[in-house]
Amino acid sequence: MESRTAALGGRPAGQPLISRPGSQARGAAPRQCGGRKASSAGSAARRADSTATQRQGASRAPAPVAAALVDEQFDAAVFAAEPAALEGFPEMQVPEANMVADLETILQERDACGVGFIANLKGLRSHTIITQGGGGGGPGAVTKALRALGCMEHRGACSADDDSGDGAGLMTQVPWKLLKRDVPGVEEGSTGVGMLFLPDDDKLAAQSKAILEEVLAKEGLQLLAYRPVPVRHEVVGRFAKATQPRFEQVVVKGAASSDALERSLFIARKEVEREARKAMGEAAADFYIASFSSRTIVYKGMLRSAVVGEFYLDLADPAYETAFAIYHRRFSTNTTPKWPLAQPMRILGHNGEINTLQGNLNWVASRQAELSHPIWNGRESDLLPLCDASASDSANLDRVAELMVRTGYEPQEALMLLVPEAYRNHPDLMKDYPEVVDFYEYWEGLQEGWDGPALLVFSDGKKIGARLDRNGLRPARFWRTADDTIYVASEVGVLGDVLTNAGNVVAKGRLGPGQSVCADLESGTFEENAAISRDVAARRPYAKWVASSLRRLEQLDAGKWPGEPSMEAARMLRLQAAIGMGAEDAQMVVESMAQTGVEPTYCMGDDIPLAVLSDKPHMLADYFKQRFAQVTNPPIDPLREGLVMSLEMRLGARGNLLQPGEGAYSQVLLKSPILLESQLKAVQEDKKLGSKTFGLSFAVGQAGSMEHALAKLCADVEAAVRAGCQCVVLSDRAAGGATAALEAGRAPVPSLLATGAVHHHLIRAGLRSDTSIVVDTAQAFSTHHAAVLIGYGAHAICPYLAYETARQWRTSSRTVALIKTGKVPDVSVEQAQANLKKSLEKGILKIMSKMGISLLSCYHGAQIFEAYGLGRQIVDAAFTGSVSRIGGLNMADLQREAEGAWAKGFPQATMTKLDDYGFIQSRPKGEYHANNQTMAKLLHKSIGLSQGSAADPESYEAYQKHFKEAPVHVLRDCLELAPPSGSKPISVDEVLKAIETQGSVERDYEIVNTDRSALARVSGVIAKRYGDSGFKGSVRLNLRGSGGQSFGVFLTGLQVRLVGEANDYVGKGMAGGEVVIVPPPGSTFAAESASLVGNTCLYGATGGALYVNGRAGERFAVRNSRAVAVVEGVGDHCCEYMTGGAVIVLGSAGRNAGAGMTGGLAYFYDDGGDFPDKVNTEIVAIQRVITPAGEAQLRGAIEAHAAKTGSARAKALLANWEASKAKFWQLVPPAEKNTAEANPAIAFSAEAAAALPVAATA
Question: Where is the composition biased (Low complexity) (predicted)?
């Protein structure tokens, strides 16, 4: 209790720790600077990943010998990107009802974490759930939940300060004993407690409280007190501290109790959130209510696991008693972590990734205005908006789960319908709990799944449990002890008692795919998956509801394949050409699928230009690239794990999620999104669906006609849906389809554009869940076309032109002849169409699996694509929320492309074949391929593989010239490659003679910052002939100006002097030689206080020496293994992961010096006496310079530095050496502790001194 009392400013024991309403007391004592904590395994792992990525780039072999000493660089970008497409999105957006989710914002927030819980089935509240020690749960005991949380540290990550965690926290029951001690008037059952994160600003904090108090009064909740939450600020990392909020608890009393009180608190919190956004704008992001409940409370933050218990002093208080604790450690995949996004949330703790998030958010936005339930007494609108794209996937899933729980669903039931089990083709399920099939089948009509790898732990305060995703892609173990305590964790061993507590464990198990466990804290029961499923399924007559609410498509149409073509061959050929189908598309894609039933595959990679850079016509779908999952590992195998995947879709309105019942919806179940033409007709004619068909065409040659047609289409569809249309059919047949005549003056609106536009228009209108979209199109004949249409809102597709192509292929005389000779398998016309359908379905499954998505109903509308070459006008109209980083076509451009394609269907001469665009195979006059025959021949000749000839420079130059003159095909080619400022690259010939003879040469050159990777080529010549250290000649290069990024990369054999400055990565991969960098003459600034080089210098260096008469940035000498460096000052993380060499810093240093350092020695001049506080002592020891060898190494390096740079600081230190030496610290990793430089017991000789690396360059 002493540390707690001190942290609270000496509050006497027993005195209530409260502030009365209206007071403005701070949440805790003033912040203090404190000692840092040891780096975590999680942060080390993440740094290792990062540096490994950098290392791959750094270790690439130098460019082959060419005619330049300094690399040619990009001078200017000539590809004009749309500014709007490149602008960043605000970190926290104000969500609005029916606002479409934005992928750029979503990509900022994904989680991959460690999670678990501990619960006493008897409901016994004690500190022991939080604490465990040899004598029980008294003060000072090791915390049980916090110990488990600490053992999840490797599942999380730290920021670059090595101390700010991505997030960690606990959810427990409200600690009533502690609150009653500190807050008078608290009564369990009628009291609610909110955990507040307030802005760290007096005015904003007061405004936040004023908003809260106004809402509480309006909602009839009596404010009892604010309770400042005692915390230890000094354990917070530097980055986390910069955004750290103030912490207080608000204690209120309500007239209601139990579930009614929970709903009142929920409404109040939602009201506060909305009012804060209105009144505070962006500042509202700093006002967050982590929990507001009469049952549970959340303590969390941007902390490492190990310091959660140290930061929140309540957790060490013996009066903090609870019957359960959920713990969570966060790894934020893509973002700068934030305090509110730490977990647990209000209901859930989530380990994994929701890969369907954008679609989930869009569906929520569309249906939220129609959600209703009598329990809310007409206040449903006060709960909106439900979700927020700027929050994480975990936070948004928690918001939906919380709504359902507050509406009356038990948490295990809510999680079953939100994250459904793979219930089809499941023998164990059919044997043990078959009744659950009707439950899942019914709920699929109301709620799409939140799909992706997920271990979810949950609690509403009465029940606590866990659920695993349908694939089981996250580990989940549970065990039970003799004292009726249940444990669930991402992995076993989190308590470290697997041996000592073995006799107390009475049961162990694991969660299988799609399974749950749940403990009822009121009844004291614990149920596993089968019992939970049976119980939930038996609560409502789901079988009856399914029978009355769901029809199978087979009931509307048995699905008959046409036995013959429906078009004349010449007409089909014209239509194929007009919609953009080429000869390869027809023959190598459609006909191949019709023949084999398998999606065609070709070589790895795509070497043709992006659609926006191509001079060939492209369909709109070609402008989209599929994204892949962030953390789904291993990926789903659609061939061998197909039992967890499904292509089922529903047609018809969704219904009210909060009020299931017999008449909640009337839908048609599709086994596949690919419809037969007869099935499409049945859907169009179905009276219950009230289907309506809309034509997709626009007037050719009239400016803006396509945009106008699109706007009219959206308005007409909205009117039809409001009138009760539950199935919208978008068809381009009216523009020349199967029955209509091709009309030169009417071209089809791209079906993908129309689908996306209608989809998003209905979302914005709040009508999207009231209808379904079926696309009847000639413009879908590949798996990618189908996937993009479904991803942007199509429930089903009828690819009628693809079917017709398959029919005409099979009935053609050429195919008949090939069948007769046995060169093609004998398939019927019907089978050819079935094969095409089967191929498209297999391809869709494959695409879903790459994103870690199992259900097509979840992939539907998820927009898991990025656009390349589409401008903001098109994206906002039809693909809202999608990322299009480079901008591109506008609506007028797209209309011209559509008109140009359509014109191909009306040639002057009779058409006999389709154009061969050469998108798949390289061919004359076809699309450009980077890997073409000319390139291959030049490459073979340049490296001596052509007819046994030897390599020669002329052949290599021809090879290089080929690429310079090649057509633009990737974005990089849109940048002009030219020497900067009109200067010419320096010929290697100017120094080649000296290299060949190991003679001497000295040259002077100018350099500018666009000269990146300077000196790599000449170093490559030396290394090829002599290796890293065999060159005995002298090549001195005197440079003036600003060195670009990676100046001196892979340097060896050169003595380089740069007068000026340099950017990041100086000496990256340096293997030998010497680099000296000094300020320009006449500089008025003090060199020792000026930054002369950037970050990450000497990254991965294996030799050589660097002398900088100025300061360096962050991560100086990271992963350095043999280089010697002297610098006047450094930023954070100096010598990170260093394994050898020597670093001498003559000025101040940043934090975290020596982190991960396992070899080499480092010397730091400490004039201010604070350097020891900046060292990461996890590995290294810190000591004064205590050996003659260490002194010789240090002094020799400083003398060399003074001689080479003229450093005033070095000269001053040498002038008063004994006093200077006394202020140096030496960092000694384990590998150096028995060297003469670090250990006085090791003999030191003059011969050893002569061999020191710093003397060689003095």
Answer: 35-45
Beta bridge partners of residue 231, listed in sequence order: 312
Whether 113 is catalytic: yes
Question: By the 8 A CB rule, do 781 and 589 touch?
Answer: yes
Q: How many CB atoms lie within 10 A of CB 845?
A: 23
- The pLDDT tens digits of the residues spanning 212-254 come to 999 999 999 999 999 999 999 998 988 888 899 999 999 999 9
Chain centre distance of CA 197: 26
Nearest CA to 458 out of 485, 495, 431, 488 is that of 488
pLDDT, one tens digit per residue, over 624-664 is: 998 876 555 445 656 655 667 899 999 999 999 999 999 99
Residue located via tokens 């005995």: 1032
Confidence at 7, pLDDT banded by 50, 70, 90: very low
Label residue 372 exposed, middle or buried (CB < 10 Å: 0-12, 13-18, 19+): middle
The tokens describing 668, both together, are 């048609």
Q: Which residue has the higher pLDDT, 987 or 208?
A: 208
Looking from the CA of 175 toward its CB, the CA atoms found within 13 Å total: 27
Question: What is the DSSP secondary-structure string of 477-505?
Answer: EEEEETTSEEEEESSTTTTS-TTTTGGGE
Between the alpha carbon of residue 267 and those of residues 210, 347, 380, 839, the distances in Å are 17, 15, 9, 50
pLDDT in tens, 845-884: 999 988 878 889 999 999 999 999 999 999 999 999 999 9
Tell me, what's the pLDDT at 558?
74
Residue with tokens 């591109």: 888
| Backbone phi and psi for residue 729, each to the nearest 5 degrees, phi listed first | -105, 120
Cα(843)–Cα(788) distance, rounded to whole angstroms? 12
Query: Would you say 360 and 410 are in contact if contact means Cβ atoms under 8 Å apart?
Result: no
- Catalytic one of 33, 113, 518, 725: 113
DSSP state letters, 747-800: EPPPHHHHHHHHHHHHHHTT-GGG-EEEEE-SS--SHHHHHHHHHTT-SEEE-H
Give me the helices (H) in 83-125, please: 83-86, 103-106
How high is the pLDDT of residue 579?
95
Distance CA 928, CA 530 (A): 58
Q: Which residues contact 226 (CB under 8 A, 6 or more apart)?
A: 18, 19, 20, 21, 23, 25, 209, 248, 249, 250, 251
Angle, CA 1161 vertex, CA 1158 and CA 1164 arms, to 5°: 120
CA 444, CA 213: separation in Å to the nearest integer? 41
Which residues share a beta bridge with 288? Answer: 197
pLDDT digits (tens, 9 = 90+) for 119-159: 999 988 988 776 543 333 332 222 567 766 665 554 454 55
Q: What residues form DSSP beta bridges with 687?
A: none
Domains identified in the chain and CATH numbers: 569-657+665-905 (3.20.20.70), 1002-1250 (2.160.20.60)
Are the CB atoms for 921 and 949 separated by under 8 Å?
no
Residue 602 contacts residue 920 (beta carbons within 8 Å) = yes
Q: Is the Cβ–Cβ distance between 1237 and 1185 less than 8 Å?
A: no
Residue 612 near residue 968 (C-beta atoms within 8 A): no
Q: What region, left, alpha or beta, does residue 9 occupy, with left being phi > 0 and alpha being psi -120 to 50 degrees?
A: left
The tokens for 348 are: 């859930």
Q: What pLDDT is attached to residue 824?
A: 92
| Token pair in block for residue 107 | 């990509």
Q: Note the pLDDT of residue 156.
A: 52
- Cα–Cα distance list, 866 to 103, 430, 719, 858 (Å): 9, 41, 31, 18
Cα 274 to chain centroid distance, Å, stands at: 28
- In this prediction, residue 9 carries a pLDDT of 32
